[in-house]
Write a structure and sequence with these properties.
With 307 residues, this protein is of the alpha/beta class. It has helices spanning 13-25, 28-34, 39-53, 69-96, 109-114, 116-126, 139-148, 209-220, 234-242, 252-262, 288-306, and strands at residues 58-61, 64-67, 101-107, 130-136, 153-157, 165-179, 201-204, 227-231, 248-251, 265-268, 275-283. A hairpin with a 2-residue loop joins β1 and β2. α1 crosses α2 (28-34), α1 (13-25) crosses α3 and α9 packs across α10 (252-262). The longest helix is centred in the N-terminal third of the chain and has 28 residues, at 69-96. It starts with 12 loop residues before the first helix and ends with a helix.
Length: 307
């Protein structure tokens, strides 16, 4: 593979960090101070970086700096480079402390809230030389991270295109309706999702499998989901429902503790799509260490089914 036609000697991590901080703060003075640089040296580094990239990263004005489109690209990629360097240093330190391997696990909120913590604890007990680095992402982003090599193992709700990946069943969950205690829809029998579409809804942020399933089901019923607000976590969903801001769907195993703690009500759904399959995936060329962790998660799911 041919290398880019850049003079790599003109790039260094101090200058990259300086540019990222300039983008984040809008101030060369502030960025220079955080990099322990005097202002003239920081200004020279920024100009040299722009010369090396052949792009103007910032527009200078009396109030500070304004980032250009090229600067936005540089900030995103530069931040990723700095994070990778931090990860490299961290793994080398860990190696000296007996940790021989980091496994990058990306997972959706449903898997983290219901299944993964005790399994991660058991695996690291069995393999103390392995550290599992967990990152929470919506299901689509989990699959994307697997494809791009940013994740070693991914756990996600069935739905995204997984062509080219090695995917196995993980666990199943059930979505249930959560409601304020005195809501008109409170009841014990299963309710059709379509019968709740006159209500205002609280759900997760865009890209979440849960939100996509709700929107698809509403569309199939010829209706629109009246989405009042979107939040990042199941707990936040519960707080919004408890405040009377809407009703919501959550996986049952995660919902019941929230229902008890916040004095809410819950009700099952009739709809088949409310029973979901979670998957665990890796790349087909994954090494033995990654495959071993995937097999551990997969075997735990089979043991759970048997139980």
């Amino acid at each position: 593979m041919s290398m880019p036609g850049y003079n790599l000697a003109r790039f260094d991590f101090v200058s990259i960090r300086l540019a990222v901080l300039c983008a984040q703060t809008g101030s060369l003075t502030t960025a220079a101070r955080q990099c322990n640089l005097v202002l003239p040296a920081a200004s020279r580094r920024l100009k040299e970086l722009e010369s090396a990239t052949g792009s103007q990263l910032f527009e200078r004005h009396s109030r500070g700096l304004s980032i250009t489109p090229a600067g936005r690209i540089f900030m995103r990629r530069g931040l990723a480079l700095l994070q990778e360097m931090d990860g490299l240093v961290s793994e080398l330190v860990d190696l000296n402390q007996g940790i021989a391997r980091h496994l990058r696990l990306f997972a959706g909120t449903a898997a983290i809230n219901q299944f993964l913590p005790p399994l991660m604890a058991e695996y690291t007990h069995l393999h103390p030389e392995v550290q599992i680095d967990l990152e929470e992402q919506v299901s689509e982003h989990v699959v994307q991270a697997l494809r791009e090599g940013r994740a070693d193992v991914g756990v996600f709700v069935e739905g995204p295109d997984t062509d080219g990946l090695d995917v196995r069943d993980f666990r199943q969950d059930e979505l249930v309706l959560i409601l304020p205690k005195r809501h008109a829809l409170v009841g014990k029998s299963a309710l059709a999702f379509a019968d709740a579409l006159d209500e205002s809804w609280v759900s997760l942020n865009p890209g979440a499998a849960l939100l996509q399933q709700q929107q698809s089901a509403a569309m199939a019923a010829g209706r629109t989901l009246k989405l009042r607000m979107q939040v990042r976590s199941f707990d936040a969903v519960g707080h919004m429902v408890a405040s009377g801001l809407g009703i919501a769907l959550l996986p049952k195993a995660a919902a019941l503790p929230i229902v008890r703690a916040m004095q809410l009500s819950w009700r099952p759904l009739k709809d088949d799509w409310a029973r979901r399959q979670l998957k665990v995936g890796i790349r087909k060329e994954a090494d033995a260490g990654v495959t071993d962790f995937r097999d551990f998660l997969h075997s735990s799911s089979q043991n759970a089914k048997a139980a």
